[in-house]
Design goal:
Length: 161
């Protein structure tokens, strides 16, 4: 535990609300895709949105579980292997959202300043790992926005989190 005084800009509860707001928006982006395009459409050689969603699902809940248990596991995609419908992705997304809420309650504010070796690759304070989860999701959701626009589908308003 870090014995230094920790200054706080945002509460632990507000950070979770912020993250879950992004997750809710990403869920609406998934929903906006036509079924076939979710799995197949891409632009300029980027991965289809289903593959980007695979990555997001491989990070959020599994990484937070690793942080809470202090169990360093390698990064692996594949929990969605065999998924053939958007509904399966959305169901997993919803399950992970509930898991994140439950795992979050096991963190103390002091935990955020402790270092954790995320996926055995990145040794940073836990707060930095969590901000990475959010930033990575925003990045990939932005790709989804580009795909939806290319498909002439209006994406959800980004500020409606």
């Amino acid at each position: 535990m870090n014995t230094e005084t920790v200054s706080q800009v945002i509460s632990q509860e507000d950070l979770l609300k912020h993250w879950q707001g992004h997750r809710a928006l990403t869920r609406r982006v998934i929903q906006a895709f036509p079924e076939k395009d979710f799995f197949e459409f891409s632009v300029a050689g980027m991965r289809p949105f289903a593959k980007l969603t695979d990555e997001l699902l491989a990070i959020a809940a599994p990484a937070l579980r690793g942080i809470v248990k202090r169990d360093v596991q390698p990064f692996t995609e594949g929990s969605t292997q065999g998924f053939t419908t958007k509904a399966q992705y959305l169901e997993q997304w919803d399950k992970d959202t509930k898991d994140i809420d439950a795992l979050w309650q096991q963190l103390s504010v002091e935990d955020f300043s402790e270092s954790f070796n995320l996926f055995g690759q990145y040794e940073f304070p836990i707060i930095q790992n969590i901000l990475y989860f959010i930033d990575n999701e925003i990045h990939h959701r932005g790709q989804g926005y580009v795909y939806l626009r290319a498909l002439n589908i209006a994406p959800p308003f980004f500020w409606e989190r």
